[in-house]
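Page 47, continued from p. 46.
Same chain as before, 415 aa.
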Amino acid sequence: MNSEIVESFAQMVREKGIDRDVLGGILEEIFGLLIKKKYGDEAKFDVVVNMDRGDIEIFLEREIVDVVKDPNTQISIDEVNEKGNEDELEIGEDFVEKIELASLGRRLIALAKQSLNQKIRELEKEIIYNEYNELLGEIVVGDIYQIRKNDILVNHNKNELILPRSEQIPFEKYKKGETIRAIVKEVRKGNSGPVIIISRSDNMFLRRLFEIEIPEIYDGIIDIKSIAREPGERAKIAVESQDPRIDAVGACVGMKGVRIHAIVRELNNENIDVVNYSDDPIIFIQKALAPAKLKKIELDEDEKKAIVTAGSDQVSLIVGRNGVNIRLAMKLTGYEIEILREEKSFEEYEEDIELFDLKEELGNEIYELLINNGYDTALDVLTAGSEKLKEIEGLDDKKIEEIIDLIKSQFEEED
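Result:
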């Protein structure tokens, strides 16, 4: 019976990868509890587990007495002599006896197996928890086996990983059975076992992809200084080369963009801007807002604020679609960025526009009013300004503002 019990759990060791010494310790603990159940808490005993032989030995130590008052801790001299007192022990000495497992009874043996199974499950959970805790921030590759409303379940080495909706790339399509890559973002202990959260939207996932696709980053020749990302839409990543012979941005993009394209495909066609990092915040902000052309940057380093002055034609480039470009630039640089629009001075316009050419846009009534008051060209109107135009009967503030905006837009279109 001893060998059967040990072998049944030795098989678990082989299947679950549990350390043999650890299992031996668990067996000693469990059978120690069984001895206390049978012989009481005051019992003196020793449990010896030999995993190599597949054997468990239990030795019970009792005091030799003339008259037994507590059979759990005492044994009579007569009983000792009946068992064969080869060492010629006497009253007052200790008698050590080997206890057969069968003597514990079937109920206690069944309890031992149940307790051991429970301990093994707890140990297995601990092993899985420690394994994934060491993988925090690293990429794992698994297979999607269930798609639910708010999360996706992924099988990785027979362990369940959870990809919540909040950690998915927006609008990315997932199919059952397909292989998926993600980073281990969080590992916590749950009632039924470790809860392992993975992510494809975390900045660390983008960092790890760059390390995989760009050897110079993996080798430490190029450093990733900061990352800003709106998953599924756009990302900015600042890099710096430790070798002056190597262009950091060029190395990341690769020949004909082959390196960056591999990462873009993995991220569901997320646009990625790679920029050179600079210790000078003004230069760094300029690069972060590229390709927009900036005229001036004023910094408040204490408040981490930057006021960026740019031409009106550059504002849309700075802001980007739905404001994504400026948001990412702020995350990347760590500065709150405010834009000051600088209107183009009239002297900067190379060519004037005849008001006749804007007749259709202005409307016949407004065109006639302007012409009759001596305004023949677009620059005539802009130079006069709103105060002068107010002198024209029939034009109110709102209409004047519309005229000026319309004419300015014509110049911007020509630019």
